[in-house]
Write a structure and sequence with these properties.
With 293 residues, this protein is of the alpha/beta class. It folds into two domains: 83 residues, Chemotaxis Receptor Methyltransferase Cher, domain 1 (Orthogonal Bundle); 195 residues, Vaccinia Virus protein VP39 (Rossmann fold, 3-Layer(aba) Sandwich). Strands 6-2-1-7-8-10-9 form a seven-stranded mixed sheet. The chain has a three-stranded antiparallel sheet with strand order 3-5-4. Helix 6 links the parallel strand 1 and strand 2.
């Protein structure tokens, strides 16, 4: 049904109508085609609640109208930004996956350094996929300055943080956080790498210079080809949003982005079982690492 979006828009801001099963299936299909994110049948209410405020802001009375707006509206490209913000969860904080960071520092970096050649000037490239507001990427940079650089003075670092949400990337680039984000920071790091001012905590320039943030849809095959020569990828708590087909595609893309001998971290509740057999599994007491042989 190709209905002009303005025909479904009410100037009176009426109460949004409930989402029909037919619209849910069509909307989740549209989201899936763009992102690979899949809302299962029992997630209809979740999708409905996530975008209801956006419908009210746009004065669109029906979810079907919003679907038409996404497909045919004159601002459909702009609207993707708001949609992606609504359907993704950006729950994160500094030093969130500490066992992974410890493995990264004490085991992976020494191994990668040997491959690159100890004593030679080389660059370590780390990818924080689905980086949200940047806490993970900045944590990696802090650990590098505090623990790794003193041991490997010739080693440089580049951290690339990517996310599908432009809004959280803006926060990441500013590097300004509230107390919730820094609540688990070790005191030594907190005192050394932040400027505190009126309840706000700003990451110092020495850390921010090691990190850059880019917009990236992990499901976009063409854009994913731009991610290359990665030594370590952190892609935690991301695969849970995809169905099996999307997971296989995304993990394959990440595999291709890694250097030979590169490593992948995923979330503690996630697994590559049935998704990819290309990685070598390395078990640690508190985490699993996947290595590209």
């Amino acid at each position: 049904m190709n209905v002009a979006p303005q025909m479904l828009v009410s100037p009176l801001l009426p109460k949004t109508q409930g989402m029909t099963d037919e619209t849910f299936q069509a909307l989740r299909g549209h989201i899936y085609s763009m992102t690979g994110i899949y809302f299962q049948d029992n997630k209809k209410y979740l999708l409905e609640s996530r975008i209801s405020k956006r419908l009210q802001m746009l004065k669109i009375a029906e979810y079907e109208g919003y679907l038409q707006y996404l497909k045919f509206g004159t601002k459909k490209e702009e609207e993707k930004k708001f949609l992606f913000d609504a359907i993704t969860i950006n729950e994160t904080y500094f030093f969130r996956n500490e066992p992974q960071f410890e493995i990264f520092e004490k085991t992976l970096v020494p191994e990668i350094s040997k491959l690159k050649g100890i004593g030679s000037r080389s660059k370590l490239r780390v990818w924080s996929a689905a980086s949200s507001s940047g806490e993970e990427a900045h944590t990696i940079a802090m650990i590098f300055l505090e623990k790794i650089k003193p041991k490997y003075p010739n080693l440089e670092l580049e951290v690339i943080g990517t996310d599908i949400s432009s809004t959280v990337l803006e926060t990441a680039r500013r590097g300004i956080y509230r107390e919730y984000a820094v609540r688990n920071m070790p005191k030594a790091y907190f005192d050394k790498y932040f400027i505190k001012d009126d309840g706000k905590f700003t990451v110092i320039d020495a850390v921010r210079r090691l990190v850059r943030f880019d917009h990236l849809n992990l499901y976009d095959q063409a854009k994913m080809k731009m991610m290359a020569n990665i030594d370590v990828a952190f892609c935690c708590n991301v695969l849970i949003y995809f169905d099996m087909k999307s997971k296989i595609q995304v993990v394959s893309n990440i595999y291709n982005s890694l250097n030979r001998g590169g490593f992948l971290f995923i979330g503690y509740a996630e697994s590559l079982h049935g998704i990819s057999s290309a990685f070598k599994i390395i078990n640690f007491p508190k985490a699993i690492v996947y290595k590209k042989e």
